[in-house]
Write a structure and sequence with these properties.
Layout (H helix, E strand, L loop, with lengths): L47 E2 L9 E2 L10 H4 L4 E3 L5 E8 L2 E5 L5 E4 L3 E3 L4 E5 L16 H18 L4 E3 L9 H11 L3 E8 L4 E2 L6 E4 L4 H18 L7 E2 L4 E3 L2 E2 L2 E2 L2 H4 L6 E8 L3 H7 L2 H20 L32
Parallel strand pairs: 8-9, 8-10, 10-17, 12-14
Antiparallel strand pairs: 1-2, 3-4, 3-7, 4-5, 5-6, 11-13, 12-17, 15-16
Helix pairs in contact: 2-7, 4-7
């Protein structure tokens, strides 16, 4: 079986704070304020007695001194990584810390963590926590395969000088809106959500990889085509019984509000793609996914596609016209969502 996935991954932000190494955590965390709560009241100095006081002493109270902003608030980050690695988009600043959106779309105040002001690429390991995603015949959960491959993508990009941020760094619940909020806070050059597929149409001549792009974005289409090209080329070396949909390739999916997938629809304005790399429901592919070496093959292929998007004008390939889909993807909402601890 695959390597176990720790609670949170090592954050690789070689240049996340505008080109330099990510600063260390500022101080210990004081976490958990609710949305309605504000900063704790600040008491003023002790009352002073007038020097001219006689038998009838006059007492006056000095005005309270405002609390000094925490070092984290002074950094004015767009995202804060909590002391235990949870990535949190910033929604406001307060004297005692930074107000953030949690993975379950609640509000909290942090006075400790790593401030992040930018990243070139944001990666999203799909599912997590109670949402396992598809489960292979070998009992491998998609959420774990997604995170393992995403870490390879992250490490490969970092070795190539690209600053990367993950939406989800461990095995915990996270809504689709919270994932999009991380992207919208950072506005990277590219965003990729990484998944593994299930329920194919049948046998396929080669890997049944699918990449989705935003309907209204030519750059999103190019990113999806480049990732598709690199992944299918890398996986074709394996001589197994592949499966896939009849419209496998780089494509779009429409919904009532435009793009069907929330992580593409809610990140409009950022070049985004959702990638279904291989079919975890297919026994031979699930067996491959249980091997760390296969994580490396998939992850490095995704990274090559992203690097080509960032550094070339290559058009990509594999573009196809999708057939209509009526089965909902499901998941990713607030119902039953439980936030991870932030320290």
């Amino acid at each position: 079986m695959r390597r176990s996935v720790p609670l949170f991954g090592v954050l690789l932000l070689a240049t996340a704070a505008c080109g330099g190494p990510a600063p260390p955590p500022v101080s210990r965390a004081a976490v958990g304020a609710v949305a309605a709560s504000g900063p704790p009241p600040t008491s003023g100095p002790a009352t002073a007695v007038s020097p001219a006081a006689t038998a009838s002493t006059t007492v006056t109270s000095a005005a309270p001194r405002p609390a000094a902003p925490s070092a984290l608030a002074q950094a004015r980050p767009k995202v804060v990584v909590s002391p235990n690695g949870v990535v949190l988009p910033v929604t406001g600043f307060e004297n005692n810390g930074v107000r953030v959106l949690t993975p379950c779309e609640n509000s909290a105040v942090l006075d400790a963590g790593t401030p992040v002001k930018g990243a070139s690429v944001v990666l999203d390991p799909g599912h997590g926590g109670k949402e396992s995603g598809a489960v292979g015949p070998n009992r491998l959960a998609e959420k774990n395969a997604n995170l393992a491959v995403t870490r390879v993508v992250r490490d490969t990009l970092a070795r190539n000088g690209v600053a990367v941020l993950l939406t989800r760094t461990g095995d915990y619940d996270m809504t689709l809106t919270a994932r999009a909020a991380v992207v919208n806070a950072i506005r990277p050059a590219a965003f990729v959500s990484i998944h593994h597929n299930a329920d194919p149409d049948g046998p396929h001549n080669g890997p049944g990889t699918e990449t989705y792009y935003q309907l209204a974005s030519a750059s999103s289409k190019r990113l999806a085509g480049l990732i598709y090209e690199e992944v299918t080329r890398a996986l074709a070396q394996y001589r197994i019984a592949w499966v896939g949909d009849t419209d496998a390739g780089a494509k779009y999916r429409t919904g009532s509000n435009g793009d069907y997938y929330a992580v593409l629809r809610q990140t409009a304005g950022t070049t985004s793609s959702l990638a279904e790399l291989s079919f975890i429901s297919n026994p031979p592919e699930a067996d491959l996914l249980a091997q760390p070496a296969f994580d490396d093959v998939e992850g490095q292929a995704v990274a090559r596609g992203i690097l080509r998007y960032l550094r070339s004008n290559d058009p990509g390939s594999g573009y196809t016209t999708p057939y209509p889909r009526t089965t909902p993807a499901g998941g990713g909402g607030k119902e039953g969502c439980v936030d991870p601890p932030l320290r």
